[in-house]
Amino acid sequence: MARLDVRDKDPFAHSDEEPKDNISTGGFIFRAILRYLKIFIFFYGISAVIYYFAFGTLPGL
């Protein structure tokens, strides 16, 4: 079975196209804040459950 040639012969062939998701700097920062805030809340929730089972109270309350 022959290998497929998936390498692009001309890497700059489509360089003049617009980005698919053209957002502003503020939008980029807002998305980054939301992303890391969701990650923080998720891991804080897991930590709070473990802390509750270990010590019988929620952290910070």
Blueprint of the fold:
Layout: H1 25-55
Mean pLDDT: 82
The largest sheet is: none
Label the overall shape: elongated
Counting H and I runs of at least 4 residues, what is the number of helices?
A: 1
Say how many strands there are: 0
The Cα radius of gyration reads 23 Å
Residue stretches low in confidence (pLDDT < 50, at least 5 long) are none
Q: Per DSSP, what share of the residues sits in E-state strands of 2 or more residues?
A: under 5%
Q: Helicity level, as a percent range?
A: 40-55%
Report the order of strands and helices. H
Structural class: mainly alpha
Task: Calculate the terminal CA-CA distance, rounded to whole Å.
Answer: 64 Å
